Amino acid sequence: MHVMLAWFAAAPLPEPARAARMDRFERAAAEVVPDTWRRHEFGGDDWGILVLHPADPGAYRWPTVGTGGPVTAVSLGIPVGLDTAAGPTALAARLLAGEDVHREAVPPFGLLALDRDRFALQQDWLGMARVFTGAADGVNAWCTRPGLLAAFLHGRARPDLAGWTSYTLCGHFGGGLSPIDGTRLLRPGERVTGRRRAEGGWHLSNELRYATDDVVCGGYADQGRPLDERLDRAADALTRAAASLHRLHDAEVTLGLSGGKDSRLIAATLIAAGRTPRLVTNDDTPAEGAVARRLVQLLRDKRGLRPDHRTQLAGAPASVLGTGLRERARRLALLHDHQFPSTYLVRPAVRDRLPEVARAASLTGAAGELAVGYWYPAADADPAPTPEQAGLTKLLAGVPHAAAAPEALAAERERVTAVLAHARGLGLRDEHLVDYLYLVERMRRWCTSAYLTGMVTPFLAPGFVATTFALSVAQKRDRLLHTALIARLVPEWAEVPFVSAATGPSTAARVWEGDGVAAVADLLDTAHGPLTGLMRRPVVEQALRRAVRGDRPDPRVLQQFTALAVASERLEPGTARASTGATYARLVAPPRPRTPAKGRLAALRWIRRTRLGDRLWVSVRRRVRGR
């Protein structure tokens, strides 16, 4: 993980103005950046670049900042998939020369190249690298954290309601939306270039280069190619991505091996290439652990391999509930600038400052969903929804729709419908529209590898993504790519069934456990800014009431409201009310005793409370009204 701020002004700035901006940035950064981090600073009176990163680079061979002659390269991520033999400044020089150096990159990866009086900043083809941009008073700036960008530009951070509307309904910020007003995420393939004028100040230009639509349409056009050719392309993309990571990281790589299909395919790719990763399995769902252990045992029995395999409980109540829900939410929001999914509230509390040491490289099976129709409706659905309907249903599932403010739901429907219309305009048809939505929305903004340098997603290798769009809908439903490649690479795994979401229960903590009910009840009393207005408060209280009764409420309601309320406390100062405990007292109060009715009226009420009595009552009422 790293922090980068770059700014370029239309004219030279007076020193007091520059100092004031940087002071605001430094004070905001001090909340999360350790004092031990290394600093790199470049600039003048009309531009500046500041890069902060752990002083200990761990096992990475690729530096965050590289200099060679007049060229400086700032890498925002690890350049997995790229030709890196000549080093970072050579890659930066190619970018400055106008090349699409990002074409083969496995997102997230951004690159800033500087050479005297010119620069170029390139977003990856998916738009996944966390580079936010904004402008104020003739200054354009880019930063890896939207809150710090707002501090530099405006001196304050206010919520972007459109962004939070998307977060509420989708569970993540959609498209290029941001949690902070006045900032946005760079678009897929977006390139910013600048040249310094002779009299000072910079001339800037933006353009879209090789991007998501190019990858998708290139693959979709290959549907008529022989199947073996398409499978070869997918296998080659995965193998090259894994090999590229090993050249960039001088230590063992960890892979999260579940009982599912995606991590199994990545593991099979590595094993076939002669690289056995360190394996770790979350045992919260017992079926996951059982299948993973069986896969490892097969490697020992059939191949004589003895990989390091560790199992763990990622969401064990004992490790989660020791820190209160409100504090877990506060830390998660601070560490990741509000961008992590609220599902992580039922994981152990994160640190409240960025790490002192670069985290070791790891692989994740995210994005394999593109090859298996993960968001497709059931093949025998009756009536069968349109692809647009299916996509909207899947994406807008951050909360039950009854829990969202109607205007928020309408606004997000309109935004997502426009994304699907764009996909149709590209020529995509049938359920490939759903895959496009999954790629540009869910993978781009929800996948946690965007926030953790060194967490690599091989399935986002552009060759693999293109192949998923070259498969037919039927081939995806049959999981053809996964089953065929696993059978080709590690055939002894082919007959082991995949674990699905319905395989068995999980022992992980629930959001209402521990102090969850009391914490959310208090947030209902205190948090009254516009952000919490994106959800219907009576539905939140109803979910709490179910938890108090011992039922299982929909966790999305409580998790999303908690995230919104904690964000409101930070981004909407002055909107909080005093804590009264009224909601919690109402929830746990014993039910009021019924006041017995008297005489014939009581008898009639008692009769109506029975099923037969109610039917008789309705029948008599109809006859009376029919006279």
Helix-strand makeup class: alpha+beta
Shape: globular
Q: How many E strands?
A: 17
Strand order of the largest sheet: 2-3-1-9-8-10
N-to-C terminal Cα separation, in Å?
A: 78 Å
- In terms of DSSP E residues, the strand content is 5-15%
Helical coverage, percent range: 40-55%
Radius of gyration: 27 Å
Low-confidence stretches: none
Mean pLDDT: 93
Contiguous helical run count: 22
Report the biggest beta sheet as strand number plus sense, adding barrel if it closes: 6 strands, antiparallel
Task: Describe the 3D structure.
With 627 residues, this protein is α+β, with helices and mostly antiparallel strands. The protein contains 22 helices and 17 strands. The strands form three sheets. The chain has a six-stranded antiparallel β-sheet, with helices on one face. It has a six-stranded antiparallel β-sheet with strand order 4-5-6-7-11-12, covered by helices on one side. β13, α7 and β14 form a beta-alpha-beta unit. It is globular. The N and C termini lie far apart (78 Å). This is Asparagine synthase. It comes from Micromonospora fulviviridis.
